[in-house]
Amino acid sequence: MPPASDPTHARPDAAPAAHQAARPEAPADATGRRTSDAVVVVHRSGPLQGEVVVPGAKNSVLKLMAATLLADGTHTLRNVPDIADVGIMSDLLAAIGVTTTSPAPGELILQHSGDLVPVAPYDLVERIRASINVLGPLLGRFGQVRLSLPGGDDFGSRPIDMHLSGLEAMGATITLEHGDVVAFADRLHGADITFEFPSVGATENILTAAVHAKGTTVIDNAAREPEIADLCTMLVSMGAEIEGIGTSRLVVHGVEPGSLRATEHETVPDRIQAATYLAAAAVTGGELFLRGARADHMDMLLRRFVDMGLEIVPQHDGITVHAPERMRSIDVATLPYPGIATDYKPLIVTMLAVADGVGIVTENLYPGRFRYVEELCRLGADIRTDGHHAVVRGRPALSGAPVRAPDIRAGAALVIAGLVADGTTTISGVHHIDRGYDDLVGRLRSVGASIERRPAR
Ligand code: UD1
């Protein structure tokens, strides 16, 4: 089908797409607080014991959903986590013309006929960073797109200059108009692109633009996260030609627009959710089997957890962790994969807050990503930040208090802190946690945590 003639306006005849959001978000009031938000109430818990099934990765599934724009027909995604961001991405894709349904838990069907509106509106885009991932597929396939500049977690400035300069190197004309990125290209062409930093999002957008470009695109210093390899695997199953999957040099041989086909794909397990349950076992001195977790995707983190005194046993179908009575402190620096992911950091800081000794944590990706430290200090943690370093002096236990989740991972870290805090810890801002965690409360309770979710008063 031809693309919409004007990317600034939705076609008046575009039918509203039926979709089923995974978990709709509550509306926000003027202060940004979700008006029907819940709270999570945690009491100090004994050693967690048992098995947790690790859901699919948020940072993969949202990109897989965007990639379905590349081929008409019916796509099936499996191991889809029940998280709010999947619902938000479904809403965004619905505005573009994709119908999303969830016939069974963990399964998402995405359908479209190629009759799409290449416009990503502000009210949806500002809610999740991953909305930027529709840029590459829409531009590569339809030659035009209008996308509001993205939002996402509030942990500092997150520019998209590498996304845009990569697309320009492939022949796109890009302007910024009234807060929107407006991009055109008759047909993108292959290019040699070297990123100055291995950006996850930029790698994904160039990849999904390049699959339909004329000629070969080489991406050097590409991000190597397992979620990018997952996206590449899905693109290949759709008919894309990609070499170097899992490495920092991706070579994409463009195929004719319209030649990709719909596919079925299973989402890679979520290494950040897996790390959250490892942290829960660690602070309570417990023993858990994390079914589905991939030790090969978490290698560096698991090594450092071993340095802290955790016993980690990778299995063919998961990871077993056995925690000591008290962990040892270590120093940690975040780096792009295969280094320690910045998303693990609030969990590591929480573990260090109750470990034996002093640990220094260095953030190398997002300067502002220490905002949750104040909340941890409300729970009695001894943490000082200086620029992009945090010095964490371990204490035997924390002390329960009301705290507010500032973003997804920090919210989960506050829940973990509550497990080792005397008394009661009440976490508000739970909508942040819901964006990326599939039933964190239920999963923790099933292995012995004293935790519940209550409506906010
Ligand atoms: C993704 C993840 C996020 C994770 C991050 C790093 C999703 C939805 N989010 O975010 O959870 O913390 O990877 O592992 O998958 N940058 C630029 N210019 C650009 C692009 C990025 O300066 O054009 C900077 C960013 O501001 C940041 C750093 O590069 O400081 C990393 O960004 P990037 O790897 O692109 O992360 P995201 O894809 O946004």
Explain what you see.
- The relative contact order is 0.15.
- The chain has 457 residues and is an alpha/beta fold.
- It starts with 37 loop residues before the first strand and ends with a strand.
- The chain has a four-stranded mixed beta sheet. The protein has a four-stranded mixed beta sheet with strand order 2-15-17-16.
- Helix content is 29%, strand content 24%.
- Mean pLDDT is 90; it is low at 1-35.
- Bound molecules: uridine-diphosphate-N-acetylglucosamine (UD1).
- Uridine-diphosphate-N-acetylglucosamine is lined by residues 59, 62, 129-130, 158-163, 197, 199-202, 223, 341-343, 365-366.
- It catalyses: phosphoenolpyruvate + UDP-N-acetyl-alpha-D-glucosamine = UDP-N-acetyl-3-O-(1-carboxyvinyl)-alpha-D-glucosamine + phosphate.
- It is found in: Cytoplasm.
- Residues 1-37 are annotated as: Disordered.
- Pathway: Cell wall biogenesis; peptidoglycan biosynthesis.
